[in-house]
Structure formats: structure tokens, C-alpha cells
Amino acid sequence: MKKKVVVNARGSGMGLCCGPTSEHFGSGHNFCRVHQTFRLTPAMEAGLTDHVWTLEELVTLLGRKSNKIAA
Asked: Whole-model pTM?
């Protein structure tokens, strides 16, 4: 008998424990990681920025965002 494995792309509890982490990963991918074929980041391709961000720039921006939310 075959066993059926059901996998959700996003688990029901993921938003509670891992929301900010996944948001930060997505930001790093979109702003800091250069696509091999296009030689641009996804954010540059979308016209959101004109340069490849350093991780320092990204962390600074995310820190400001977190402070505004906490206040």
C-alpha cells in the first residue's frame, strides 16, 4: 500500500514563529543576491532600486522598520 504524504507550502503555524525570518530572507534575496543570467537583483529588475544592496544596508533598513513597529 502506498503512503500519501501531504506537504503544505506554508504550514499553519509558520506565521506565528517564522514570519519575520522569512520576510528578512525574502528581502535579502530580492535586494542583495544577483541573478546569474540577468546580472541584476530582482529588485533592480522591478525598478525598486538602482544598485545591489549590501547586507549592512538591508539590516539597517529592517532595523528602522522594526523600531517604527515597536513604537
From this structure: 0.55
Return the closest-CA partner of residue 45 out of 29, 25, 66. Answer: 29
23 assigned to some structural domain: yes
Q: What is the pLDDT of residues 20-31, one digit of tens each?
A: 555 566 788 888
Q: Phi and psi dihedrals of 54, rounded to 5?
A: -85, 160
Number of separate domains in the chain: 1
In a domain, 11, yes or no: no
Q: How far apart are the C-alpha atoms of 51 and 42, rounded to whole Å? A: 11
The answer as to whether 5 is a domain residue is no
pLDDT greater than 60 at residue 56: yes
